[in-house]
Design brief:
heterodimer, A: 14 helices, about 0% strand, globular, B: about 350 residues, alpha/beta, Rossmann fold, 2 domains, 11 helices, about 20% strand
């Protein structure tokens, strides 16, 4: 095998594996921001999803039930964020950070019993792909079609643009906002469970290592569009896969620099996106109601 | 009154002439600081098992432990908090804690600091570590014997001497069985990053590597990835064969308890002098894990024979002839490697593919 072969062998599959949990969380946050909310608690929801999913598989032996358990746990934790911001009207950033810390502590506490516990994950499909990668890929068109082509999707977008106008149309904005937050929690919990059950078959404290936060940032790169969530997540996954594969191929680049690659790539795309936004502000796709988050 | 004053003066005189570490009557309070979660099924768990051993074998001892403390000024605050809570002995169990322990040692001359693996001491700061190179060498022999491609991989957290040594010992052991063996190194840039460890293992496997060694916080993630993909691993710090029964060949695990207990007893008896205390496979601080089913009978015999040679001081891993990665001679035949050179190792031996950067 030449160095080039080593880098390219399974690169796409590797990028997809790295991207899948992130993509799930990203789709969730995309929907949450579409109803005009920003949830920094994503990181905590992913962790709670990861530990709940792992525990469910340890108890039942079924990775499918594990994914469901993770999704439910993520959704449950997101209701705390929903209650704080929608019902109590608390600041979104402070509430998000609180939920993040709550999820981090809760998952670490509940997870101690599951460190080093063996579970049976999904079997490998041809080419090293797994059901969670397929699930994440399938959810991209489903989410996009639902958001852009259905009546309820339109109602969500209406609330995200302007709660006042939505109310005038007979929509109850707080219900839609809460739904957006809880569905975001469901997706992020699913992403966390995919990471623990399938990608790593490991539960370890704080194992998401910032992926939830990356997802919050990547929503901007994806321009609040579920279709674009796929390339945004893939870019990050590709960066991570390359950083490891270049080392396996004995590239002379220092490992410290390679580990910055996924972030550098995301930042580059982010900068280019913003530059194009300046030329044509309407191309951004940010829900107008999102501005309210910064004023609340 | 006079006798009292005399006694007082005598006590002051005695206090002035006594060494900093006088024999103590009451059982001590001991503080332990971990860089990661105490239940990480890896390095930190091994240190915590040591703490529990000390607690169990020294009745009345109180141990404090704090997990997830980064290698920053925060560790200083944690140590000071422990000292205020009565800790007389502090185990600073992570490499990056050393300078903080040294500077706090000057501020608190009556507290004994024990640092894991450092190369500096102070008036009241000593280090403890164990040489797991022998066991890594033997584990490397198993890897060399089982590998069909002759291509081994190694997943390391950071290029620090403790990890570089493991990689070299692992490679030398494998080469003693099959001289053509190479070891490809991938750094993850963190002690506990399961998603990266899984992908690092995948990238090595995709490059045709069929036995993976590693030194990150816990071998559990790369072992399970190897089990899933049908290749083999060598463990480090804790035995994870129950997680990957087919994949695990063997491993080098820690057993810190007896060494920690001995140090605490010395400090309490007032006989301790800060130094670099080092254990190894001979005194039981390092254990070669049991063999997995994939290691053939003939290889087991060769490995165990080599283990006996090591235990009988007839074989040394770090002795010449040794050549660096780029072919420069490092040690002449039969020459031993000095401890300082060993513990500051920043080079790879011939056959390792990767950079110490």
């Amino acid at each position: 095998m030449s160095s080039v072969d080593i880098v390219l062998a399974g690169l796409l599959v590797s990028a997809l594996r790295s991207a899948a949990p992130l993509l799930l969380a990203l789709l969730g946050e995309c929907l949450t921001q579409r109803v005009g909310r920003i949830n920094l608690g994503l990181e905590g929801q992913m962790l709670v999803g990861a530990v709940a999913g792992y525990a469910t598989v340890a108890a039942t032996g079924s990775p499918w039930l594990g994914l469901a358990g993770g999704a439910v746990a993520g959704a449950l934790l997101s209701t705390v964020f929903g209650w704080l911001t929608v019902a109590a009207g608390a600041n979104a950033f402070a509430s998000g950070l609180a939920v993040w810390m709550l999820g981090l502590g809760l998952s670490a506490y509940l997870g101690t019993a599951f460190v080093g516990v063996r579970i049976e994950g999904f079997p490998l499909w041809i080419g090293g792909l797994t059901p969670t990668v397929a699930l994440a890929l399938v959810l991209v068109p489903l989410t996009a079609l639902w958001l852009f082509r259905t009546r309820s999707g339109l109602r969500w977008r209406a609330v995200g643009e302007s709660e006042h106008s939505a109310r005038a149309l007979g929509i109850v904005p707080w219900r839609v906002a809460l739904s957006g937050i809880v569905v975001g929690g469901l997706f992020s919990g699913l992403g966390g469970a995919a990471l623990s059950i399938d990608i790593t078959r490991t539960w370890a404290e704080g194992m998401t290592a910032g992926r939830g936060l990356v997802a919050v940032g990547l929503v901007i790169v994806a321009r609040w569009n579920p279709w674009l969530c796929l390339p945004a997540a893939l870019l990050f996954g590709l960066g991570e896969a390359l950083a490891l594969r270049l080392q396996a191929a004995d590239s002379a680049v220092a490992a410290h620099l390679l580990h910055m690659l996924p972030y550098a790539v995301s930042l580059l795309v982010f900068t280019l996106t913003c530059a194009s936004l300046r030329r044509d502000p309407r191309s951004g796709g940010a829900p107008a109601g999102l501005r309210a988050v910064f004023e609340r | 009154m006079i006798t009292n004053r005399r006694l007082g003066l005598a006590a002051i005189a005695a206090a002035l002439t006594l060494p900093a570490f006088a024999a103590q009557a009451a059982p001590p309070t001991i503080g332990y600081i971990y860089v990661g979660p105490e239940k990480d099924f890896g390095y930190n768990t091994s240190m915590d098992v040591g703490r529990q051993f000390v607690q169990k074998n020294l009745p009345g001892t109180k141990t404090l432990h704090v997990e997830n403390i980064p290698e920053t000024a925060e560790v200083e605050k944690v140590m000071e908090r422990m000292i205020r809570s009565g800790a007389r002995i502090i185990f600073a169990t992570s490499y990056g804690y050393l300078d903080y322990a040294i500077s706090l040692g000057k501020k608190y001359p009556k507290v004994a600091f024990l640092h894991a693996g450092g190369l500096k001491t102070g008036a009241n700061v000593g280090t403890y570590w164990a040489n797991s190179d022998d066991a890594m060498y033997l584990a490397g022999m198993a890897a060399g014997a089982v590998s069909k491609s002759g291509k081994l991989g190694f997943i390391g957290a950071f290029p620090i001497p403790q990890v570089v040594r493991s990689i070299n010992a692992f490679t030398l052991g494998a080469q003693s069985v099959n001289p053509q063996v190479t070891t490809t190194v991938v750094w993850t840039g963190g002690w506990l990053l399961p998603p990266k460890e899984a992908e690092a293992a995948n990238s090595l496997i995709d490059a045709g590597i069929d036995v993976i060694g590693g030194q990150v916080d816990s071998p559990m993630t790369y072992a399970q990835t190897a089990e899933k993909r049908g290749v083999h691993v060598v463990g480090k710090d804790v035995d994870v064969s129950h997680l990957a029964p087919k994949a695990v060949l063997t491993g080098a695990s820690w057993n810190w308890g007896p060494m920690m207990l001995k140090l605490v007893k010395e400090i309490e008896a007032g006989t301790w002098k800060p130094s670099h205390v080092r254990g190894d496979m001979k005194d039981g601080t390092v254990v070669l894990d049991k063999f997995g089913p994939a290691v053939p009978e003939a290889a087991r015999k060769t490995i165990l024979a080599k283990k006996e040679e090591i235990l009988a001081n007839k074989f040394k891993v770090w002795a010449g002839p040794l050549t660096t990665q780029d072919g420069k001679p490092l040690l002449a035949a039969g020459a031993p490697m000095p401890m300082e050179q060993l513990e500051s190792m920043q080079f790879f031996v011939k056959g390792v593919i990767g950079t110490v950067k």
